[in-house]
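G., the chain you wanted modeled:
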Amino acid sequence: MQELHARIEDKRDDLVRLTQDLIRIPTVNPPGDAYVPCAEFIGERLRRRGFQVLYLRGKGSPGDNDRYPRTNVVARIEGKQPGPCVHFNGHIDVVATGKGWTEDPFAGTVKDGKIYGRGACDMKGGLAASIVAVETLLEMGLDWPGAVEISGSVDEETGGYGGVAYLAKQGYFSKPRVDHVIIPEPLNPDRICLGHRGVWWAEVETFGHIAHGSMPFLGDCAVRHMGALLDRLERDLYPALAAKRTAMPVVPEGAKQSTLNINSIHGGLGEDFEGLPSALVPDSCRMVLDRRYLIEESYEEVKDEIMEILEALKRERPKFDYALKELWTVGPTMTERNAPVVQAVASEIERVLGKPAEYVVSPGTYDQKHVARIGHLHDCIAYGPGILDLAHQPDEFVGIDDMVASAKVMAAAALTLLGVQAG
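Predicted structure as tokens:
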């Protein structure tokens, strides 16, 4: 692989420029800005290198409209004979910049061996590394079988339903079209991410009876009922979740247990009023729950834990009543360590970095969930440059050396998966 590695080293400046160009297209989601120009930028570059390019709009997906079309790009290049397909998928959307930046978030500034900008780490640096990796393979003129695909998909930051989920429903992440998938999420260049924990989002609403605030005894306070639920969660559920541990190699350490986040609570008057509030007993209070669960748990178990508490309060607490609305659920997923894509990437990590790969699982979900549950393709991992803790932070950056190393790993792993031995 020495020639391959040397060629990628020679492309360092090109890799930096490509990453900068991607950062400078402000694909902020929501609402979904600049998806079309970003997809076309990627597609045109790959078309010039011989790829067949498709632009696929996730029509009907959340947020899709004529102003903010959910436009994805899928590029494919065939080898000289039939064989497997290796697919590199990167999301092009980025989160809002937020406050606290000392660098221009859309300038792609290079400083001290790093490229700064929103999306540099998560995940335009990884997408650029995968593109340069594949371009290098093409330039070497190897006689490889099968096909290589590169996709730039949308909306990963808001669930991926206009992106990978939409593409998976159209067959773009299923056999026989695709055999192996690498998603260059920022998980450090020596880590292979096998999957992620499950997620269950739900909204609980407690009900009361409106009355004058000076005579609360004539009403029934929905916020107090929600307080009773919060107390029961603190006393009963949180200790039980802390006791649940997983064999999944989840990072960071705190995510090796089941977790529950109270995402928001709204009760009584809205938050947009000015001046003094009116004197009312609130008749409604809503709370959003963000429950992350382990591969050892089931969806039914996760939901039942909340339902049992709610039903107990309904029996025990006068006038307690509630409604529960499920907002979103995705099961945990984890690719086996002996899967071909895992073995290929692990071997190249050790070759390039001189140390064994570390196997991890993400605390939150990413687009592997759609590849697994919709595409029914389980030879899928996340692997890419960047430090996960920097994602969504001000002054987000990606290390140039990490991008080069990851490009070497991805290129060599792709050859292995295609069944090619390179010198």
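The mean pLDDT is 96.

Shout if anything looks off.
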